[in-house]
Write a structure and sequence with these properties.
- By secondary structure, this protein is α/β, with parallel strands linked by helices.
- Helix content is 35%, strand content 19%.
- It contains 8 helices and 12 strands.
- The strands form 3 sheets. The chain has a 6-stranded mixed beta sheet with strand order 2-3-4-7-8-12, with helices on both faces. It has a 3-stranded antiparallel beta sheet with strand order 1-10-9, with helices on both faces.
- Strand 9 and strand 10 form a beta hairpin.
Amino acid sequence: MTTTAQHVTAAPVIEATTQLLLDRYVFPETAEQLAALLGRRLAEGVYDVEDAADLARLVTADLQSLNGDLHLRLKHHAEPVPPEQGAATLARVREGFDSSLGGAPRVELLDGRVALLELAPMLFPLSWSAEPLGAALTLVAPADALILDLRANTGGDPDTVAFVCGHLLDGRTHLNSMYWRDGDRLEQSWSPAHVPGARFGGSKPVYVLTSARTFSAAEELTYDLQQLGRAVVVGETTGGGAHPRDGWTVHPHLEATIPVGRAVNPVSGTNWEGTGVRPDVPCAAEDALDRAHALARARLAADTADEPCPATANPAQQRPS
């Protein structure tokens, strides 16, 4: 199918994007450097293109050239996007929610009473996803071990991260903190003290599957559980995006996505930006499920072998009925 080009005039798009950088980007000094870079490239004629998709590609490359922030981009949309802040992304997210059973497309009981729960394509806003995720997490709660598949999950809502963690921990736990440029404030994220339905709990084995595509809030979920020592991460190093972002429409087909905060983990004191979450058990993403299943069954077998034998009653103490 041929994509119809959308005409664009670069100057107003660059002007709007530059102002958003200066006003909103979580790193003000980097914002100033990027603003100067965009202005220089505009003056040099680098952005003298007629197609919005071409402009998005050129500007995104420049935006990511200083610190490699993958959340910072000029995003092209084939269909016209609403002018309201965040509306372009929200419309796309809703389509994914409706086509993925609310973000839990696969729930399965594997051999050995090991449950598999896939969360994809993203962790949707909690106001939408609490019911389907709560149902899925309740369904896997009786299993002896859990494999959480995030290999195809590209991000989402930090509140949903906390909701999932609440089912995998025994009590309210400090998961993460978020620094926001707006107000120069630090906001803590905690798992909820109470969750709907049954709780898998904080003692049974949990394995998280990752790939190079695992990104943003899915990385936060992985990192939080790993830093707490709650889960074993199996698979590939993740994409490396730890900065929550918001989106502003700067052209009918272009959205400037600007990171407005950064994560600060209470255990490590840092985050996964640029490095990704490194797995505890590295392997190719396509092999991660089999590897985690084998690890889970071995762990459960070892735990069973370590259990003390039931005490045998003393025959002398037995009484006839």
